[in-house]
Specification:
196 residues; alpha+beta; 4 helices; 8 strands; 33% strand
Length: 196
C-alpha cells in the first residue's frame, strides 16, 4: 500500500526510532468516504470483498501498525453493517505488548479526515491526507512549539511505491521488511474481523 512508500512516512518512522517523540503511547487514524448508496457496488457487495475494512481499512491499518513498535497483540472492534452484511463503519482499538494503542475509525457513508496523529511522551505528529502524505506537523510538548515537515510529493506516490519494489527485488533485506509489514497488517486485519 502506498502510505509506507512515501518519503515522509520513512522520515517520521526515523524520528520515532530515534526517540524524538519519546515513548509512543497512542496512534489515532481516521478515514471516511462518502460512497453513494448502491448495494451492488463493489464497496458494499460481499461477493466483491466489499466493506470499509477491506477497502479504506487497508490503508488505515497499515499506516497504524507501521508506526507501532511491535505487532498488535490485542484488537477490540465494533462495526455497523450495511444492509448487505459488509462493514459500513467501524471503530477499532489495537494494543501491543509495548503499551502502545491505536484507534482506527472507518466509514463508507460519512466523510472523515484521512488523518493520523501519533502521540508520544515528548510530542505528537499530525499527518493530514495520510494515504499519499507529503507534509506533517510536529508538536513539541516541552516547548509548545510546532514545526512543519515536508518531504516528497503526493503526485509521485506510485513512483515511490514502484521504486521501493525495485529495490526490494535487488535487496532481500528490504524485501523482508515489506514482507514483515504485510504480515503484521494481515494479522491485524484478521484480529479485527474476528472481533466482529
Amino acid at each position: 500500500m502506498t502510505p509506507v512508500h512515501m518519503p515522509l512516512f520513512k522520515r517520521l518512522r526515523e524520528l520515532i526510532n530515534q526517540g524524538s517523540l519519546g515513548q509512543i503511547k497512542v496512534i489515532n487514524t481516521t478515514f471516511g468516504s462518502h460512497k453513494p448508496y448502491d448495494p451492488k457496488n463493489r464497496f458494499f457487495n460481499p461477493d466483491l470483498a466489499g466493506g470499509a475494512l477491506l477497502d479504506i481499512g487497508g490503508y488505515a491499518t497499515q499506516a497504524s501498525v507501521y508506526f507501532m513498535n511491535s505487532t498488535p497483540s490485542r484488537a477490540n472492534s465494533m462495526m455497523v453493517p450495511f444492509e448487505t452484511g459488509v462493514d459500513e463503519q467501524s471503530v477499532t482499538i489495537l494494543a501491543n505488548d509495548n503499551h502502545e494503542m491505536a484507534t482506527i475509525t472507518l466509514s463508507m457513508q460519512a466523510k472523515q479526515p484521512k488523518a493520523i496523529t501519533i502521540s508520544g511522551t515528548k510530542g505528537y505528529l499530525r499527518i493530514p491526507d495520510f494515504p499519499r502524505a507529503d507534509a506533517a506537523i510536529w508538536y513539541h510538548t516541552d516547548t509548545g512549539e510546532s514545526e512543519a515537515i515536508a518531504l516528497g510529493n503526493s503526485a509521485d506516490a506510485l513512483w515511490y511505491e514502484i521504486s521501493d519494489f525495485e529495490q526490494a527485488v535487488q535487496d532481500p533485506k528490504i524485501a523482508l521488511e515489506f514482507t514483515n509489514l504485510t504480515g503484521m497488517q494481515f494479522e491485524t486485519l484478521s484480529k479485527i474481523q474476528q472481533a466482529w
